[in-house]
Each structure stands twice: as C-alpha cells, then as structure tokens.
Amino acid sequence: MIGALIFIGDELICGAIENTNSVFAGRILTSYGFEIGEIVTLPDKIEIISEYLKNLIEKYEFLIICGGLGPTDDDLTNLAVAKAFNLELKENKDFLSAIYSAKEYRKSQEIAKKMALIPEGAIPLSKNFSSAGYLLKIKNKSLFFLPGVPYQFENLLQTEVIPKLLELFPERTKRIIKTLRFFDLNETDLNQVISSLPEDILSPIKIGYYPIFPELKLILQGKEEKDLEVFINKLKETFLPYLVSEKDKSLPQVIGELLKTREEKLATAESCTGGMLASIITSVSGSSLYFDRGFVTYSPESKIELLGVKKETIEKFDVVSYEVAMEMAEGVRKKTKVDYALSITGFAGPTGGTPENPVGTVYIGFSYKNKIKAFRFSLSGDRNQIQLLASYTSLDILRRYLLYGESFFSYRFATGIKERTF
Amino acid sequence: MIGALIFIGDELICGAIENTNSVFAGRILTSYGFEIGEIVTLPDKIEIISEYLKNLIEKYEFLIICGGLGPTDDDLTNLAVAKAFNLELKENKDFLSAIYSAKEYRKSQEIAKKMALIPEGAIPLSKNFSSAGYLLKIKNKSLFFLPGVPYQFENLLQTEVIPKLLELFPERTKRIIKTLRFFDLNETDLNQVISSLPEDILSPIKIGYYPIFPELKLILQGKEEKDLEVFINKLKETFLPYLVSEKDKSLPQVIGELLKTREEKLATAESCTGGMLASIITSVSGSSLYFDRGFVTYSPESKIELLGVKKETIEKFDVVSYEVAMEMAEGVRKKTKVDYALSITGFAGPTGGTPENPVGTVYIGFSYKNKIKAFRFSLSGDRNQIQLLASYTSLDILRRYLLYGESFFSYRFATGIKERTF
C-alpha cells in the first residue's frame, strides 16, 4: 500500500508555478490510509523520467505520475514510458475523437492529436476529457498517468484512481485521522506540552505539526477513536481558546457555522486589509446568510463619508489608531442592522508607518451589543502576511467572543486594548 | 552547476502544507543561471533521507536540503546526515547561545537545544537565527542544509547560499530570462502560433508554458537580448491584447502603474466576489494613490442603500443582471469622485444560479467618462476560481481600456454586452 508520486514539468523545477497537485494528492491518499514513500519532481527530460519510472517501480506498489501528457513540445511522458519499458506508442481512437470534438483544440488539432499517442497496454482512465490519463500495469505494479492541469488531475484522482487503489489494496491500514487547527499558538509551545503528556496517552498517537500560516495544523493519527479523544481532551485543558476546529475547518467556516446557528449577522469595515477580510468571510458558500456588507474605506475621506468617522478624530489621533478603529466599527453598527462589526486600520507595509506605530501596527475594532473594543497589534511579515494575519485575528476575536464571551481576549501579538460603549 | 533539491517533511508528503520553499528556490536558482536536475520530497525517516543524500551527491555538484533541522521529535535531518556520511554530531556553541537567547524558545529550551547538535565539519551559514542551517562539503560537493520555515529558508538562500554558489561556479551559463504574462489566452493557441514561427526566430529561444490560474506565464530563455526582442515582437503581432506584462508583473501591479501614470482613480462595488477584487487591487503597496474605496454589497439591501441601485431594477431583472451591474457601477461613480468604477454581480457557486443564469454567470460593470458598459460572462470552476476569474477579468477590462481604448473588449468567456450613458 505504499506508493510514490512523480511530478513532471520544467515549470515545477524552476519554480514558475506551485505544485498544488502534490498537496491535493498527498491529502487525499493519506486520508484513505495509503502511504506515500516519496515524491519526486522531474524536468521535461525523457532520460531522467525514464530512469525514475524504472527505479521507483521496484520500490513501490503503485506510482502516480502527473504531467507531461499535453500537446506541447515539452510534453514527453509518453515517450519516456515507451523508453523505460520498451513499449510502442499507439493512437487511441477514443482520445482522438475527444480531441477532435473539444472546443479548446478547434484551432490546433494537428498539435493536439499528439495526446492520443499512448503506450500499448495503457487503459484510459476516462473518456470525458481530451487528456484523460491512463493506467499501465508493469510487473504487477500499477502506474497511474494523469494530466498536470489541476482541475483534471484532482478530478481523475478522486473519481478514477482512488477507487481503483481501494480495490487493489483492501487490507490497507485503517487509520483514523483527525486534523486540529489552532490560531495564535506557537508550534514549540504545543510540542512542549504534548511531549510531557503521560506515555499511555501519547504513545498510540502519531503526531504531525504543520504550520499553515496563519494557522497551525496538528494532524493526529491513531487506530482507536477513544485514544484520539483522550488525547484531544488533554490538549483542550491547556489550549482551548486557541483551538479553531477539531474537524480541519478553517476560521471563516467556523465563524459561518457559529453565526448561522445564532441567526446573527456581521458587517465589516477595512482599511489596510483592503477587502481581504470580507473576501475571507465570503469565500464560504452560503455566507450571505450571515454577512451583509463590507466597507473597504481605503482613504480617509471614505472613512468619513461612508462610516461617519469624525474628521477631528483622524486629525487628533491619526487614521491608524484605537479611536478611528472604534469609530469605524461604530459606524458600521449605526448604518447597518447587524449584530457584530469588525474594523481594521493599520500599516500593512512595506511603506508607511510612524515612530509610534511602525509597519505591522494594526488596530482591530470589534463592536457587539452596545460595546466597542479596539485592540492594538504588532504584527510581523510582508504586506500580504500582515494583511492576512490582521484579517484572521479580527475573525478570531469574534470567534472567541461567540464561544467564550469576554474571557479570552488576550493574544500573543496584542499590545493594548481600549473600550467604550455606544 | 547542476544541483538537486531535497525537501524533508511528512507535512509535505501528506499534503498538509504547500511547498512554497520549492517555488522560491526554483525561481531564484534558475534566475541566477543554475540548473536544477531534480527535486525530491521525503518523509521524516532517517533511512530514505540518508539514501538520497548518498545517491544525489554522486549525480550533482551541489545539493540544497530543506527541513528537519527543528527541535521537535520529527526533525531527523542531522541524524540522517550522520548516518549517510558516518559523521559524529557535535554541539555547536554559537547555535546553542542563539537558542538560549531566543524569545520563542524561552519556555522550551531543553527541547530546542537539540537544534545545536550538528554534524562535525558543518559550517554554520549564519549566526543570526536559532535555526541557521549549515554547509557541509562531502567528496568536494557542496551540501547546504537549511531550515524549513519559509522566512528563514528564503533569507538564508538569498543571503548565504546564492553568493557561495556564485563563488563556487563562476562559469555558469549566463542566460537572459524574460517572463511574459498573458490573460484570457489558451496555452495551445499560443503554442500553435509559436511552433509555426520561422526557425531563425524560434531556435535561439527555450520556451516554457506555465498556466498559473488565471494567468498564463511564458518563460523565455535565450543568450542574446535581441533574439528575445525579435521573438516577443512576433508574439505581439498576434497576441497584443492578451499580453499583461513583459516583466512578469501581475495584473493588479500593471493596473497600478497605469493609473498612477495617468493620475486617475478607481473604486469598486462587488457582490459575488465579496471583497476579492478590492483585495487584489490593494495587495499592491502604494495602491492608496489610485484606489479610493470599495463597496462589498453582498445583500440586495446593501446595493440599494449604499449604491442607489433601484429596488424596481432588482425586482424586474434580478440582482444578477446587466442592469444591476450597470447601476452598481453608476452608483459608485455618482457617490465617489473617481474616474473608473468596476462592479461585479453573479453566481460564484456552488449553490445558487437560475436556468437563465446558472452558476458561473457573472456580470461585470465598467464605468468610464459618461459611459457604463456591462459584460456577461460564463465562467467555469469552483467558487474560488469563479471569484478569482471574475475579479481578474474586471481588472483586465480596465487594463485594455486604458491601453487600447474601446478596441479590444472581446473575451473568450464573454456571452454578451450592454451599454448606456449616465
């Protein structure tokens, strides 16, 4: 049940694109209990592709090979397969007719038909696409060849490859995997507490720490449900406020579920995050049930005109301040019938900042009931990281309030808090 | 001058995180003229790490090994190195004192000091970090060991590894690399035109096609500046409207430069993209010079209250329509002194849609001078892809207008257009 993955493409080697297929394949195979022994990324060169096909087939039960099946001159996978295993390439009639009827190849059929030349013995994985991929059995090992286009790769992996693998390896180790997500928690602090847990709680669990900015994932694998439950309950004793989800749900998803259950609504006002907070909230399908509107008040004028922030407040305290964050949140509540408002004003960098409020300084306003709180944060990272961390932190402030009331408002990078009522 | 990269970590194998270090390393090494022969990703297992260290050192001049240098129990790189090359691990005093003074390990020093045990002969790459990485020379090959935390990896690669590589290999092939970005262009259409170019124009250039949704990157490598210029001019004859940048700049960066030069301003009104358009615009530092405000009018009420969209228009044509898109854009122009307004209303999915306007239908409004245009699009993909494609398309409509006036308003997925004046 141990396989390996081969990703082919100069674009991966020279870092022109991210390998999202590797992430997807790793996740889905692992969650089904399959083990991946190694992942290899190769350039568009027949020699090395051929060499790895021959080597890895000796070490592993199955291989998944991604990329190089397309029509352009740098697509060489089929030639490499032919070389590695001494096979002829034959024109597959089903592939050919799919290519001829595809809209996207209407003007380039002579080039596109190269994709129909596949190794003898290859079993197409699907007839739906013009680049369907195929299965090849060599020395009783299963080699799955898939196109590199992510949408096609993910689809074929899910609908064709996984079911075939499940048939081939019915006795795979059944493991239960639980993915916990934390926010505002340091990996080493978590590790320290975990490694001091009693042996009987610790030993049945395989633990992986995966920082995935700005969250921290903890992937736990065990054979028995109850071992995992005991372990997780132990973690909650120390880390409850930082635990966003036990089901690998993201912060915006958790916010959505909480607000939907309470039938409450949220609106936002952002400056330095420029729409990112609203975008994160609305990345969740169905968010229209609890998200009404967002203001991206990027200029001082727009804060005054749209939210009623007072010109005098900006002049006295500067646009990046507790007071402006509070007036922004208050403005949202006054102009909109929502239960909660979140506001963000700060310096995302790399330019900007003042001696008192350098780049990374962010004020987050939170209004609930008749109250308004503003938190000051000192965040690090590049522009995108600061925007992301500020957006997530504001959502997490709301999350902690919804779950724990006003008990858990302290954060690692918070440097102050002010509040007032309406 | 050919090296290989090894990335170590179960979190990469099982897809828990994306390998951004691989992208960074690939890009920076390639741009300096170094060739990467292969990239291997391994689990946290001493045996296979050790095996690959021994194998790859025979095939390549240098190796860059990333990950497994941390303090947690799954960090095994140093042990694997010791095993592979029969070396002892020794406590490095500089590392140790850096760990003892680091804020983040204040509460976990006993665990953290494991990071100071490095192979004999290892030369630390920096004294600035508590996880600095090191250089090891084996059989006259250079092995660079770097931490997996992206900020540290990128920093060390840039400031320590690249300079050392440049010293080691002064005769590397100097290549000029130009990265072109296209939008709304199909890879096979581009390839078809390219492969029909005259031999003398084509042969000096190495070409890579890299779809990076929603753009398409074309990476051109050549020895002479003039060969690249001739080639690019040939491409422009056919593909000018689709060419976003010859300097690998993204669409929001290009929009920023165009608006700044013209001293003009933009504001936005979004529904189904929920803040993503504003977020993309403001991802560019300095965007406050040309971006004033964005409205995220996620509910019908907010469209009416904030933008002056007429209730009757929504009732007659539905909120996802040409007419509402135009009234949203018009509302932005009327309430704000900006030169351009972009609006988006549609069904991003997966839920929603009507028989006439299924999921993926997006109306984009564009207002300039005294005109308002609305375009209807039929987009495919998941929710995030539809939001991203809609956001990018709206920016591209503005880009083409700024560069070419009203000549190039046709798009692959556009299914209609309406217009009126104020």
From TrEMBL, chains A, B:
<feature type="domain" description="MoaB/Mog">
    <location>
        <begin position="4"/>
        <end position="168"/>
    </location>
</feature>
<comment type="similarity">
    <text>Belongs to the CinA family.</text>
</comment>
<protein>
    <recommendedName>
        <fullName>CinA-like protein</fullName>
    </recommendedName>
</protein>
<dbReference type="InterPro" id="IPR008136">
    <property type="entry name" value="CinA_C"/>
</dbReference>
<dbReference type="InterPro" id="IPR050101">
    <property type="entry name" value="CinA"/>
</dbReference>
<dbReference type="InterPro" id="IPR036425">
    <property type="entry name" value="MoaB/Mog-like_dom_sf"/>
</dbReference>
<dbReference type="Pfam" id="PF00994">
    <property type="entry name" value="MoCF_biosynth"/>
</dbReference>
<dbReference type="InterPro" id="IPR008135">
    <property type="entry name" value="Competence-induced_CinA"/>
</dbReference>
<dbReference type="Pfam" id="PF02464">
    <property type="entry name" value="CinA"/>
</dbReference>
<dbReference type="InterPro" id="IPR036653">
    <property type="entry name" value="CinA-like_C"/>
</dbReference>
<dbReference type="InterPro" id="IPR001453">
    <property type="entry name" value="MoaB/Mog_dom"/>
</dbReference>
